Structures are given as structure tokens and as C-alpha cells.
């Protein structure tokens, strides 16, 4: 069997993690990225326990822990100081936790690991893929590089270029629409008055929502601890918030009227002329596709299942996609050939139910936090505190946030996943099942 050569379009979390798993088992990988250099744009994100298990599988968990911020739970506060959300990872498992991490740091950790397999990886920066053609024996990619046309052939392609991808087969797309609400965000110094191991959120009805996420550090300044601040807004108001200083002052007043301690910290940040917060916008899409792969074409990451960030599962699901693809590839190799049909059947068994569960729940919960519905916030405020009083629901919520659910009454079973573990003797590497890390 000749060495398979995979093309990966997009150097985000899903693309980089998949490239590591493919390269370390001896496959050839070519990564196509439209940007001229890797400079991830975005605030901090929260890696859930299931995603961190994949990090351990990749061999990058220790590196990430040195730079990221350990997160033990999520607390959501109402203006009257009452906790609406009070979910902690230990309720799902005694050794579980999350990791707040800057997007640039996440990219650094993954590319640093990928460099260990440089002989199997080819980078194509500044390359835009415009068309994919599949034949019985190969995939051909057509695109441009610095205004020059090119085409290249591979054994398979994985589309991992984000929620707005134009490459995923149109016949597979069931839903592709923008959310009416987005967020303004900024990376700032860590808040001294908030618990540094908690993701703090603040709500008032369904129209006001703010978050403060411990974000750890960036590689160039490992001692400076950071936080990400999120302020939810209708998408139509984002640009005016970013450009209009009076809008920022109005936001600060809204926070001060409800959570004065946090507002005092924010005022100090805004008054620091040397370190003024730089605000950027984040807009989200809802993407649902009927299948994740067929033949020699696959779709992973946000390109396959983008959704609201309400459950904090974006990067987590991308990492699980990468893990599932590597396991499915191993299972589909028969008689020195890859059975592509068996590969996608196995992959869908691993990822379909979990993805559907989280997309459904995200679509259900998002209006309770971000919408113009007068009843949404009241319904949420009435039901959520009650549910947290019941041990069963409290545990189920923690398992859900941890990224471990595969359905309403099912969750990821580490021992079941372990049966798909592969051993690559050629590279003296063991790929592990999703472990319970400590």
C-alpha cells in the first residue's frame, strides 16, 4: 500500500489536530491555508474535559496546561447576585476540569507538536482552494496562490476551513445561517476580584449577557495572566459598539447598575491609556450538514457543525472530530487499502449522535440568553435554579458542559472508545483512548 496523501483545507483547531494524528502514523499531509501566516484572530476559548482528553491523546496537554488557565466550573449571576448557573466539572467526574486558553496559544501548542512530524507535512500558506473534483482514484484541488492558478491531486481531502466554508458539498448542507446575535470581545489582564478558576457570566433577562473567561497566557509573555471579556449584542449593533465611545460608556453603565464590583475593574481597564482594551466582533453561524463525509471528501470542525458558543463546544468538537477521523481511518484499512465507505460509516457512528445532541441543545438554549423574546429570560430564571437543586439534573448539566454527552441518555464511555486505540510500531507511538486525566 502506498503512503496515503491527505489534503487538509484550513489550519484551525480541527485541521491542525487532524494533521498531527495523520502525520504521526506515517501519512503524508498537505495543509492549505488562505492566510499568508498563522495569526489566529479571536478571544479566549474554553477547552472542555473531552477536548483535553484528546489533547492528552495528541501529546500536547502538558504544554497547554503551562500556558492555559485551569477552569473548575461555570457560574452565571443575575443582578440580584443570585446564581442562575452553578455548574462544576467535579459533578461530572472527580478529576475533570476545563482549560481557558487564548486562540493564538492554542495554535502555538498544536503547530509546535506538528513540527515534530515535519518530514510528513507540507505547508501551503497563502493558498486559496476554489474547487474540489473527485474521481475514483484521487481528489483534485484547484485554487490560486498569489494570483497564480494551481491544481494538485491527493488521495483524500478534509475540509476544515470554518463555518463560512464554500467548499463543503452543497447537497450536504441542510442549514447555513447567521445568528442574529454576536459578541464584542477583548483580551485584558486578569480580574483580581473574580475567582481565577471560574468562567463567570452575568445575565439580565435575555438581552444582557457578559462573560469573563480565565485565558491563561500567550507564549511570548507566559507570566502575564489574561482574561477574555465578552459582551453580547445583536449583530446589527456590533460595529457601532466597536467604533462609538459613547456606546462603550453606556455598556459600562449597564454593568455598573447590575454588577458594580465587576464594573469597577472594567473602569480601571478603560482608564489605562497605555493598555486600552482592543474590542473586536465575533459573529456566529448555525451550520448543519446531512453527512460528514463520503468517498474521498470529508468535512470537520465548524465547517461541519458550527453553532452558537452558548455551550462552549466549538474547539472541543473539532478535537473530537480529529480523534474520530484518525480512529476511523485505522479501522478502515483492509488488505493494504482504505475502504472509504467503511471509514465514513465508522466516523458517523462516532460523531453523528453527539453532534446532533449539542447542536439541538445549543439551538434550544441560545434564545434563553440572546434574544428579544420577552418571556425567554423569565422562563430561564424560573427553571434553571430549580433544576440545579436536583442532583440528577446537576450532574447531567455538568456532563453536558464537559462535552461528554453522545445523546440525551448516553455519554462518552472511555472503555468503549479504548477498543479503537491504535498502535503504530513504525513510529514507536501509542495513540491512547480518551483517558481520564488528572
Task: Offer a few descriptive terms.
single chain, 438 residues, alpha+beta, FAD/NAD(P)-binding domain, 2 domains, 7-stranded mixed beta sheet, 6-stranded mixed beta sheet, globular
Per-chain topology:
Layout: E1 5-9, H1 13-23, E2 28-33, E3 44-47, H2 49-58, H3 61-67, E4 69-71, E5 73-77, E6 83-88, E7 98-102, H4 103-114, E8 121-125, E9 127-134, E10 139-145, E11 148-154, E12 156-159, E13 173-178, E14 181-189, E15 198-204, E16 208-218, E17 221-234, H5 238-243, H6 245-258, H7 260-271, E18 280-282, E19 285-289, E20 293-294, E21 297-299, H8 302-305, H9 314-332, E22 333-334, E23 337-338, H10 340-369, H11 376-388, H12 391-401, H13 414-418, E24 423-424, E25 429-430
Parallel strand pairs: 1-2, 1-12, 2-8, 5-15, 12-21
Antiparallel strand pairs: 3-7, 4-7, 5-6, 9-10, 10-11, 13-19, 14-17, 14-18, 15-16, 16-17, 20-21, 22-23, 24-25
Helix pairs in contact: 1-4, 1-9, 2-9, 6-7, 9-10
Task: Write up what this structure looks like.
With 438 residues, the protein is an alpha+beta fold. The protein has two domains: 5-70 and 102-178 and 285-424, FAD/NAD(P)-binding domain (3-Layer(bba) Sandwich), CATH 3.50.50.60; 181-282. The chain has helices at residues 13-23, 49-58, 61-67, 103-114, 238-243, 245-258, 260-271, 302-305, 314-332, 340-369, 376-388, 391-401, 414-418; strands at 5-9, 28-33, 44-47, 69-71, 73-77, 83-88, 98-102, 121-125, 127-134, 139-145, 148-154, 156-159, 173-178, 181-189, 198-204, 208-218, 221-234, 280-282, 285-289, 293-294, 297-299, 333-334, 337-338, 423-424, 429-430. A seven-stranded mixed beta sheet has the order 6-5-15-16-17-14-18. A hairpin with a 5-residue loop joins strand 5 and strand 6 (83-88). Helix 1 runs parallel beside helix 4 and helix 6 packs antiparallel against helix 7. The longest helix has 30 residues, at 340-369. The protein is globular.
